[in-house]
Amino acid sequence: MMSPQEQINNLTEKLNYYNHQYYQNSVSEVTDFEFDQLLVQLQELEKQFPQFSRPDSPTHRVGGTISKEFPSVTHIYPMLSLGNTYSEEELSDFDERVRKGLNNEAYEYICELKFDGVALSMRYENGILEKGVTRGDGVRGDDITANVRTIRTMPLSVRGNNIPVKFEVRGEGFMPLSSFDALNKEREDIGEALLANPRNAASGTFKMQDSGVVARRKMDCYVYSFLSDDEVFETHEESLIWMKERGFNVSPTWKKCQTVEEVFEYIRYWDTERHKLPLNTDGIVIKINSFDQRRELGFTAKSPRWAIAYKYKAEAATTLLESISYQVGRTGNVTPVANLKPVPLAGTVVKRASVHNANEIERLDLRIGDWVFIEKGGEIIPKITSVDLSRRTSDLETIIFPDTCPECGTGLIRKEGEANHYCPNEKGCPPQIKGKIEHFIQRKAMNIDSLGSETINVFYQKGLVKNPADLYDLQYDDLIVLDRFKEKSVKNILEGVEKSKTIPFKQVLFAIGIRYVGATVAEKLTSYFKNIDAIAAADLQALISVPEIGERIAQSVVEFFQETENQEYIARLRQAGVQLEQEDEELVSEGNALEGKTFVISGVFQNFERDDLKRKIEANGGKVLSGVSGKLNYLLAGDGMGPAKLEKATKLGVQVISEDEFLEMIK
Ligand SMILES: NC(=O)c1ccc[n+]([C@@H]2O[C@H](COP(=O)([O-])OP(=O)(O)OC[C@H]3O[C@@H](n4cnc5c(N)ncnc54)[C@H](O)[C@@H]3O)[C@@H](O)[C@H]2O)c1
Ligand SMILES: [Zn+2]
């Protein structure tokens, strides 16, 4: 038995570690429920043995921290956490404390959904969005203004009468489920590890250095509070209405409640309805409406006394694990999928659950015939959380992960340090071949919409297409003899294939299907190297010097072009007439104001996309370099520029100029 002091130490360290993983690395190693229970345990021990409570205890601090990658900003009003509960009983206790705290005065609550993302603070001055900051440790946060500006629903300026000179709004930045699904689909397509859930994805995204990438992820934010030194509003309700009117994205799901019973109704209503919203929610937040009464109730070190979060427990069910099937993806990774005895859970009937990989099977000690607990947490596909060992009959066999591919029989491999098994038979494994062709024809790639996965399956079965390049050899006579292919559809298909020859090179490069080369990476490689031969000829070093191309991607590109079969594949695409170089956009000279001057561009700009800016510099006789060196003339600094670049430039005496200063130079 551990002594109370040991228990307190133990829990403090464990929780601090989970906090670190959660806020710093955007990873949840335990469920929120488990985390919150451990926290309650610690709170209770500390209450009994206050002498052992540690100064670094998570019970009296906000869990997050600031990072080194962004400048930090001190909050004008600290950004606190919320007390939370999972039970209606404790909610009644909260209501009782409020009643006492307000000496039996009348009061109202505003109920809102608890959106599952990351807290953001937006500062406005003279109606202009000046800063976007994360919660950080509650006192200071990361300045992620450039990333916040990519949120399309966040007004960059607010106009009208009665706008305080300075005010702050707060909200929950989130990744809409649609963006999350699209992102994971894309990651699966190029062989990247999938993101665990939208919350962690949002937290990781808002901490990215390249706000261009953040913009593409289509982040959003629901705004839920207004702060200002002036007493502008008497109630929270007024402020919500005002913010909505001024163009802020206020979720229409809030409700004013006069009694705690009405609060319970709200909780029950949203327990099921929340699954229809475009984002994940993990509970509701109950707040006192009157600002005067909020001041009366005040704060603890960690959270307001005038609000509380009621959290929904992740919905769970038990069912029978009937079998495991193994799916082979386009890039050859083999994923186990649990086939379950159908069971209702959170509004749908669940038949399958994801198990991720072999480690997960081992960790859970899964056996066919086991009764398992499944949960629908932040994730969309339910997952198995544990086995009900009390119901296990003695003779269940352990699951042995197959050592050969279920589709083609090739021996599976597992790369050093990776959890996934792969089928290496890229050129002969049916789902990999079909997957490659499906990848090739998709909208963001060759955009051949007259083809679909069923047609591809037929073509593959008939031996007509084994490689995307085969599409360009398809003949009318080969297709018209197939069942169900009428003249019109055959013509459509051939026309679609023909039209794809005009698709620009950056899309072709993505279509080719090099592991880890997504649409964005393909674009970066294209604008740097201009044509496929230059990319094929580039060595690891050259590839890594392209902005935002890391070693892993570079390695994958090098390996791809080393293979003879891939060289043949490219040669056939070339012969077919597919675009393998970037069309030069006519460079019209605008003068020679920048003659002999060199520039490095960093960050995001108000008036230009990066490529436009580059063209602008070249059109005026200047040159754009990729890295900061002593010879460089100017570092052209946009929003959200990496501090490392700035530091280097300053050290080397390179002049740092703003977008306005640049525009001045070419006027
Ligand atoms: N699983 C893990 O490993 C792990 C680790 C650390 C923390 N956590 C979870 O995070 C929680 C602690 O995080 P926290 O301190 O941010 O508290 P919290 O998330 O429980 O509550 C505070 C936050 O709620 C958010 N929020 C969403 N909708 C809101 C609304 N309508 N009004 C006001 N705020 C709203 C805000 O971002 C605010 O900062 C824990 O209770 C735990 O569940 C989990
Ligand atoms: Zn295979």
UniProtKB/TrEMBL annotation:
<keyword id="KW-0460">Magnesium</keyword>
<dbReference type="InterPro" id="IPR001357">
    <property type="entry name" value="BRCT_dom"/>
</dbReference>
<keyword id="KW-0520">NAD</keyword>
<dbReference type="InterPro" id="IPR018239">
    <property type="entry name" value="DNA_ligase_AS"/>
</dbReference>
<feature type="domain" description="BRCT">
    <location>
        <begin position="589"/>
        <end position="667"/>
    </location>
</feature>
<keyword id="KW-0227">DNA damage</keyword>
<keyword id="KW-0234">DNA repair</keyword>
<feature type="active site" description="N6-AMP-lysine intermediate">
    <location>
        <position position="114"/>
    </location>
</feature>
<feature type="binding site">
    <location>
        <position position="287"/>
    </location>
    <ligand>
        <name>NAD(+)</name>
    </ligand>
</feature>
<keyword id="KW-0862">Zinc</keyword>
<dbReference type="Pfam" id="PF12826">
    <property type="entry name" value="HHH_2"/>
</dbReference>
<dbReference type="Pfam" id="PF03120">
    <property type="entry name" value="OB_DNA_ligase"/>
</dbReference>
<dbReference type="Pfam" id="PF03119">
    <property type="entry name" value="DNA_ligase_ZBD"/>
</dbReference>
<dbReference type="InterPro" id="IPR013839">
    <property type="entry name" value="DNAligase_adenylation"/>
</dbReference>
<dbReference type="InterPro" id="IPR010994">
    <property type="entry name" value="RuvA_2-like"/>
</dbReference>
<feature type="binding site">
    <location>
        <position position="423"/>
    </location>
    <ligand>
        <name>Zn(2+)</name>
    </ligand>
</feature>
<dbReference type="InterPro" id="IPR004150">
    <property type="entry name" value="NAD_DNA_ligase_OB"/>
</dbReference>
<comment type="similarity">
    <text>Belongs to the NAD-dependent DNA ligase family. LigA subfamily.</text>
</comment>
<dbReference type="InterPro" id="IPR001679">
    <property type="entry name" value="DNA_ligase"/>
</dbReference>
<feature type="binding site">
    <location>
        <position position="311"/>
    </location>
    <ligand>
        <name>NAD(+)</name>
    </ligand>
</feature>
<dbReference type="InterPro" id="IPR004149">
    <property type="entry name" value="Znf_DNAligase_C4"/>
</dbReference>
<dbReference type="GO" id="GO:0003911">
    <property type="term" value="F:DNA ligase (NAD+) activity"/>
</dbReference>
<dbReference type="Pfam" id="PF01653">
    <property type="entry name" value="DNA_ligase_aden"/>
</dbReference>
<comment type="function">
    <text>DNA ligase that catalyzes the formation of phosphodiester linkages between 5'-phosphoryl and 3'-hydroxyl groups in double-stranded DNA using NAD as a coenzyme and as the energy source for the reaction. It is essential for DNA replication and repair of damaged DNA.</text>
</comment>
<dbReference type="Pfam" id="PF00533">
    <property type="entry name" value="BRCT"/>
</dbReference>
<feature type="binding site">
    <location>
        <position position="408"/>
    </location>
    <ligand>
        <name>Zn(2+)</name>
    </ligand>
</feature>
<keyword id="KW-0464">Manganese</keyword>
<dbReference type="InterPro" id="IPR012340">
    <property type="entry name" value="NA-bd_OB-fold"/>
</dbReference>
<dbReference type="InterPro" id="IPR033136">
    <property type="entry name" value="DNA_ligase_CS"/>
</dbReference>
<dbReference type="GO" id="GO:0006281">
    <property type="term" value="P:DNA repair"/>
</dbReference>
<feature type="binding site">
    <location>
        <begin position="81"/>
        <end position="82"/>
    </location>
    <ligand>
        <name>NAD(+)</name>
    </ligand>
</feature>
<keyword id="KW-0479">Metal-binding</keyword>
<dbReference type="GO" id="GO:0006260">
    <property type="term" value="P:DNA replication"/>
</dbReference>
<dbReference type="InterPro" id="IPR013840">
    <property type="entry name" value="DNAligase_N"/>
</dbReference>
<protein>
    <recommendedName>
        <fullName>DNA ligase</fullName>
        <ecNumber>6.5.1.2</ecNumber>
    </recommendedName>
</protein>
<feature type="binding site">
    <location>
        <position position="135"/>
    </location>
    <ligand>
        <name>NAD(+)</name>
    </ligand>
</feature>
<dbReference type="InterPro" id="IPR041663">
    <property type="entry name" value="DisA/LigA_HHH"/>
</dbReference>
<feature type="binding site">
    <location>
        <begin position="32"/>
        <end position="36"/>
    </location>
    <ligand>
        <name>NAD(+)</name>
    </ligand>
</feature>
<keyword id="KW-0235">DNA replication</keyword>
<dbReference type="GO" id="GO:0046872">
    <property type="term" value="F:metal ion binding"/>
</dbReference>
<feature type="binding site">
    <location>
        <position position="112"/>
    </location>
    <ligand>
        <name>NAD(+)</name>
    </ligand>
</feature>
<dbReference type="GO" id="GO:0005829">
    <property type="term" value="C:cytosol"/>
</dbReference>
